[in-house]
């Protein structure tokens, strides 16, 4: 606490790209940061992508050095498996209660050798991989996760259901497995808060006409990202459920746009990126992109679009569309306003809208700020600043404020830091 | 000085020990020249391991340290800190990666051991040629130059000034405010623009920390992050050159509009009553929307994407401001017919679609069209176009508004050169990294915000201004010294042939040419040690500290022997 009675430490909620960038920038100015992350790993959504538009940079190569820096930064207190439960006080003087779940693996002792996974008798679907592969009850979400320390999923671990299993502990050479770890209640005193909790994808099952969940080989964008990821369930081989490579694919834009009532601003670009993903793995594949309006704003995006067009993608502007099972594959039946037609494909990828994460309303309540009409955290006034909120000292950054690309998320993260640093002296 | 090299091999639990016969490695290296001690340890990165290393360095009086363990990405920093704590220069250390690049990927134990020996020997041979490198500290000036007095520059100035930074705000026009002062309202909230901007201009005027220069242009920016010398020229005064020092520069020079005369098919400049978006904004702000003959238009066509093909990018805001124009028209001229001619509606973000839906409720036509052409038939303007069903149509109107693309201002190249930054797609200032460095540039301490970096709306512009303020407030702290990169390039005076190849490849503008000596000179404060000049130099004059030719040669020779 300084002489004016305010705290200089900052709370950052969410260790995705916005939270990471905000934390590192704050630390650079010698602020102590408490970075609260709900999951066991950092990197958020961006590390699920193999490549990012528009220059197709390897996403993990882009973020990993920043994650590494974060872990080594002495100003940053990273609390994983942690959630903010209560915030009291006002700008300069917040008291924050954090609930930190036990990992049951010691962060200091564990060297990330993975020896504990194999002997674990439990196997279940890996959520990080959108259920496309299995994981154990002790696990890291994917190869290369940082911190590279597994966690025990007590909901599925048989030891936590009363069995006397010590398989992982016996396999560990470093005495890193600690079944006696306890959840912690941590109280923090901070001067400012940045909420950067990210987004979720619209649930494509809510629009049955796309066949998701009913027809095999209809994938969501996130599932497809993991299919292409070299550290994903297929090690980057794009295959159908039967193991074969698709000969044709349809990418459907704007899934959920009507339901959400806004354009998610990144889907056209990532759909074009998917075209690149498919062509680079299966050069002879036939791709059709179904869209209504192509939204590729910004100085660098059209060039990418033109490059993709050169690869021979069939761009089909449609008014209505549905996916039906037909033969071994699917028929995408559409109406372009002039005529009805149909294209037969092996694989369908749905470009789902961005929507608020399900815990956004809880975060709003805890922070004492409001949600906008779509359920994102509400900015104070979009024409003044999109990172300030109705509550002084509480700032927002990234997709928790609304759909946006990585560049704009990082800009907001930097902007929120600017606001924090000019708050108090 | 006698070298006393300590070599320590980490077992990394079973990770290395199971695949590599560590005793064999120790045997192979312990009698090498300069090696004073060779030991193994079960986990060197642990708290005990680091303590062990520190004690060993002190006990044996080691001068150099070699650790054979994991990837430098994992623990190079860790062991460099150990060196510092034990009192030896952290650059007299080398890490051999015998885990990721050996134990984890080599099936056969003998082969893995052989490889580990070579990697360790290579590290030992390399470390013999290492030199101590010292961190430097430089005083910095916390003041900031902001170029451009539009909304981006105003926001950046105000925010920085609120943190007690002294700001020099340089605007080439006679007043502050920029483009936005021409707008009556802004989308999507349709709040009067004057509410936003007038108060801000007033705040600038009243702020003691901000020194404003209008009718002025920046002539010269010399120096580096923390220490720039700036020269500006005032256009209206006799004694017109002003010089001052700053630590950082914010380029907020805004944008210009594509000139529709370059696309003659739209009739701009040929026909009366074909207006550009900016002309229409001004006309609307004047209070009266009228044709050249003074009458109010009964029908108006708004043509989107003017110049998009020529520029090669979507300007992001034209769809939204075109929708705003429909609102202006419907509000001021009851019964006016408004038709949008567009190809793709680009209304990204959470608040835009609702605005679009509200506009459509006002009985506005949206015509998806290609091959749009504006012709004159008699007194009437006629829009000829190809509709979605490929039919050729025409649409007579009284007035045409063109929504031209956003393009860089005419002085963008000049300012890029002055500040040693590059231009990217479309000629806008290039950001340091498309994703992670949107407001920083290849020159440390030079930031780009608003439409000077690329087309964007007001809200995104303000975010970038705040972001640049965040970057500056975080890295340029009054009283704090800055630490430039240690592993920098150096150019040998006697070897340099003055070909300037290095200058052309340096992405940071760190190399200048000494005209008297006819050689290239590295500014070590700006250099970030990327090695581009070292690789490109045809005479071997450029070398990179800690990656010198000899260091690399010795390491490789040992590894492939």
Radius of gyration of chain B: 32 Å
Low-confidence stretches of chain A: none
Give the count of helical stretches of chain B.
17
Our Rg estimate of chain A from Cα atoms comes to 23 Å
The whole-number mean of residue pLDDT values of chain A reads 95
N- to C-terminal distance of chain A:
11 Å
Description of the molecule:
- The complex is a heterodimer of chains A (425) and B (561).
- Chain A has helices spanning 17-28, 59-72, 167-171, 221-228, 257-260, 267-281, 301-310, 360-367, 406-423; strands spanning 10-13, 33-36, 51-52, 57-58, 76-79, 82-90, 93-100, 123-125, 134-136, 138-139, 151-152, 184-190, 192-195, 199-201, 218-220, 248-255, 286-291, 314-317, 320-326, 329-335, 340-345, 347-352, 354-356, 394-396.
- By secondary structure, chain A is an alpha/beta fold.
- Chain A folds into two domains: 10-101 and 183-198 and 357-423, FAD/NAD(P)-binding domain, CATH 3.50.50.60; 203-353, FAD/NAD(P)-binding domain (3-Layer(bba) Sandwich).
- In chain A, the strands form eight sheets. In chain A, strands 5-2-1-13-24 form a five-stranded parallel beta sheet, covered by helices on one side. Chain A has a five-stranded parallel beta sheet with strand order 15-22-16-17-18. Chain A has a three-stranded antiparallel beta sheet with strand order 6-7-12.
- In chain A, α1 packs across α2 and α1 runs parallel beside α9 (406-423).
- The N and C termini of chain A lie close together (11 Å).
- By secondary structure, chain B is α/β, with parallel strands linked by helices.
- The two termini of chain B are 27 Å apart.
- Helix content of chain B is 32%, strand content 25%.
- Chain B folds into four domains: 5-133, Rossmann fold; 144-254 and 409-475, FAD/NAD(P)-binding domain; 259-395, FAD/NAD(P)-binding domain, CATH 3.50.50; 489-545, Alpha-Beta Plaits.
- Chain B contains 17 helices and 28 strands.
- In chain B, a hairpin with a 6-residue loop joins β11 and β12 (241-246).
- In chain B, the strands form nine sheets. Chain B has a five-stranded parallel beta sheet with strand order 9-6-5-13-24, with helices on one face. In chain B, strands 15-22-16-17-18 form a five-stranded parallel beta sheet. In chain B, strands 2-1-3-4 form a four-stranded parallel beta sheet, sandwiched between helices.
- Chain B is elongated.
- The chains are: A alpha/beta (425), B alpha/beta (561).
